[in-house]
Amino acid sequence: QVQLVESGGGLVQAGGSLRLSCVASRNIFSIDTMGWYRQAPGQQRELVATVTRAGTTNYAGSVKDRFTISRDNAKNTVYLQMNSLKPEDTAVYYCNAETNTRRPYVYWGQGTQVTVSS
Length: 118
Description:
By secondary structure, this protein is an all-beta fold. It has no helices and eleven strands. It starts with a strand and ends with a strand.
């Protein structure tokens, strides 16, 4: 029943790197945009990065030049390479997928914890 499955989270020191992966189930049709959001305790969920099927990317200002989003359409997978991690990046990271349909539908993963120690 799980539609999106994230992996790659963990505990790293400030300045370190992590690579997150998210695989979408093959029964999700017409996916256009995939992306990553994050939520720290007591905070609103916020956009990290998105990428369209065509490859157009969008990043939050706080992660520009440090994070890179990419995808493999054949594998229905989106990645987030996170470099130069800061303690402020600590959050649960959620994968997201949106369909390109008349009434777009949004799917969410269960989340993967990223913790950056100082």
